Amino acid sequence: MEEQELAGTARQCAGCGVMIQTEDKAKPGYVPPAALARDPVICQRCFRIKHYNEVAPVSMDDDDFLRILNGIGATDSLVVMVVDIFDFQGSWLRGLPRFVGGNPILLVGNKLDLLPRNINVNRVRNWLQHEAKERGLRPADVLLVSAAKGVGIDELLVRIGELRKGRDVYIVGVTNVGKSTLVNRIIHDHGVAETDITTSPFPGTTLDKIEIALEDGRVLVDTPGILNREQIGHMVTPADLRLITPSARVNPKVYQLNDRQTLFLGGLARIDFVRGKHQPFVVYVSNRLKIHRTKLENADQLLAKHHGTLLAPPSGEAVASLPPFTRHAFKVDAGESRDVVISGLGWVTLTGKADAYLEVYVPKGVHVGIRRALI
Ligand code: GDP
Questions:
Q1: For residue 110, which atom of ligand 1 is closest to its CA?
Q2: Phi, psi of 59, deg, nearest 5
């Protein structure tokens, strides 16, 4: 009898939105039967994240995700696309223009709090707009926020109100951009729900879409994120992910390098200054990530001897499961200011008076790119 009732009122986890089930511990949405009486009900996975800060990897099928995105094109709605300004490349939701149909897009750059204090916010906004355009997206507006610190949220809500014109709102983004944190903020500032949506530093927390009622009878829909496999975060352990994900404002570190010198960003990236003139390399990564400088001629040996110890993360045995380093070559022309971006880790800014030739080594599958300097 009890089971029938349950089946009739299919419930979703108040944390991540997945359908609740009591049969299979290994599958998403599992709740021990005894915990069903709780209100609100959260799945065991969200429970663990909340109370023990530990996460069981669950991934959403790409097809499921595409199905949800495709559905948005058929609606009349405002699409709010969230990106992580600290990891723009890794957080770009590819193919969005194809899926949204004629719906307007509001582009939100989150994690503003991580950028150094002296940044010009307008410049970052213009930069985002430019990058979006390059990728075929013409947002109705671009806003910068910090969901975690509550910066820019009022303006965002006003802008959503103006742009949605009485329509539903879909919030989309790849995992880890802070979408759940943002939705929580919106809920709290609007007071429309009592439960937090679970947030965590691990990719993939929101498993199915969550609808939040808006005052005019419309809904705000939090869609699940999709994993961007180019993010380095998918290749490291949860402990290392915590270390490389900046949690506080990033302090740029300046290295005056001569050519034939190498910088190691932990044991996850190696930057060889192959040819050029003495010049600064400004590194923007998590403050907790250790950086080592060495002569290029010693770099191979240093890596062979100290990968996983001095050059970490990856720490210890995790070195063995890291994909092999692959080489990417770049040239920064004299007088230009360029960022060499390593998806999920950060970037290095070069502003050389002479042409600079670099070789960057990262685990296979991690995206490395070059862009106009952000700062
Ligand atoms: P989702 O997968 O996009 O829903 O991302 P979450 O909301 O779970 O957030 C992913 C990680 O980013 C968590 O560690 C959050 O604490 C962190 N985060 C979210 N918003 C911000 C922000 O505005 N600033 C900073 N520094 N971290 C944030």
A1: 23
A2: -125, 150
Digit-coded pLDDT (tens) for 20-31: 999 988 788 889
Q: Which of 176, 209, 228 to mutate to test the pocket of ligand 1 (most atoms within 8 A of CB)?
A: 176
Contact 58, 203 (CB under 8 A): no
* Residue 76 CB coordination number (10 Å): 11
- 115 Cα to the center of ligand 1, angstroms: 14
Q: Alpha carbon 16 to chain centroid distance?
A: 17
Domains of the chain and CATH, by start: 2-52 (no CATH), 62-228 (3.40.50.300), 243-372 (no CATH)
- Ligand 1 atom 20: residue of nearest CA: 178
| 256 CA → ligand 1 middle, Å | 33
Q: Going by DSSP bridges, is the β-strand pair 141-144/105-110 parallel, antiparallel, or unpaired?
A: parallel
Cα 201 to ligand 1 centroid, rounded to whole Å: 6
**What is the pTM assigned to this prediction?**
0.82
Rg (CA), the chain: 22
Q: What was the pLDDT predicted at 8?
A: 41
Note whether 358 and 330 are within 8 A (CB).
yes
Cα(206) to centroid(ligand 1), Å: 12
Burial label, 93 (beta-carbon count in 10 A; 0-12, 13-18, 19+): buried
